[in-house]
Amino acid sequence: MSLGYRFTSLIRPQWAPEKGSVLTEVVVASLVLSIAIVGVALMFSSARSMVVAQGAERVAFYLAQEKLENLRAQGFAAVPIRPGGSCAAAPPTV
Q1: The domain containing residue 30 runs over which residues?
Q2: Would 70 be classed as within a structural domain?
Q3: Residue 57, number of CB atoms within 10 A of its CB
Q4: Angle at 42 between CA 39 and CA 43, to 5 degrees
Q5: In a domain, 93, yes or no
Q6: CB 79 within 8 A of CB 71
Q7: How far apart are CA 53 and CA 62, in angstroms?
Q8: Domain contains 13
Q9: What is the pLDDT tens value at each position of the chain, 94 positions in all?
Q10: Is residue 55 part of a domain?
Q11: Cα–Cα–Cα angle for 23, 29, 33, rounded to 5 degrees
């Protein structure tokens, strides 16, 4: 009889009721992890589609913000008054 067999026979009765519980724990943990990964993947997918859908509005917002910054830098006297939006001075009327 080897020493390893003696220790195995002494330890084994304590672990006997838990036979197969490690496999169950691994399956449950992998199930929880897979649900979390699917949730994160769906979140990234929906965020990307929302960014693509809002693309035109973001460009318009950026252009409007740039126009306001230019007007603030030039002073509000440069704001166009005539329809058409040109900043050139109107010809004098006689």
Answers
A1: 21-74
A2: yes
A3: 9
A4: 85
A5: no
A6: yes
A7: 16
A8: no
A9: 455 555 555 555 565 566 678 888 999 999 999 999 999 999 999 988 888 888 878 888 999 999 888 888 887 777 777 776 555 555 555 5
A10: yes
A11: 145
